[in-house]
What does this fold into?
Amino acid sequence: MPELPEVETTRRGIEPHIVGRRINRVTIRQPRLRWPVPPLDKLLAGQRVKSVSRRAKYILIEFANGTLIVHLGMSGSLRIVNTNTPSRPHDHVELCFGKQCLRLHDPRRFGAMLWTEGDPLKHPRLCDLGPEPLSNAFNGESLYRIAKNRRAPIKSLIMDGKTVVGVGNIYATEALFAAGIHPQRAGNRVSLARLEILVDEIKKVLDHAIERGGTTLRDFVNETGTPGYFAQELMVYGRAGEPCKLCGNQIKTRQIGQRASAYCSVCQR
DNA sequence: AAATTCTCCTGAAGGC
DNA sequence: TGCCTTCAGGAGAATT
It folds into this structure.
């Protein structure tokens, strides 16, 4: 599932192929995504892409008359393909620029395409989001200010977009392991010093995955793509029942906030 | 206000 | 081999 590193890698991958280019056709095969897809064929006719940016896991494609906001949900992907490439099932929307198209493929349709004519950062979906995880605005003290008054599990807090954006289940799980913090520990029972370590580990794991994405997802033209992380690098995520790579104890799993959460009860307290 | 539960959807995995 | 059931998962919405 696309987490922030995959979204950033996607943004970097498509940007050079579409910035400055003019749309000559839009095809909507399936308008029923998370929310109905707006009439992009009319909105984008003849429009030129001004920029491709990102906020949280949203990709923002800017035009002179507004901004297309794209979210990949958990099974979505954007690819640059030749116009004559046959569409596959679940290729829901495509923006064509002459001989090339930007295609949204999303089997589970948890993704979204939204349109706004104002400042995209003021859009209802974006205006209440917390800080970017890799920015200085997200630090030990900012996390402490939130966590110190909350009894919810620390894992739920760091996965809450109002605390910090872009930390999905995989990276939350891995960062908590790296920081030695039990995912279910109440927010108000984690010291500032430990939160500083946690923030550090979150940034590290995201940075590393973006770096990976840059090398493994380099080609966005006619490529299937690989995720920004590798199964053999995961310390705990998806390893329930297997031995901890640090202490050998069996990795456990439980539901925290409706999400599978793997952890080592020896290494994480 | 905070915490919890529900919801969308389909591919993959497990059971028999 | 194949059919049927179960379930994960991002994040907004609804509910407690």
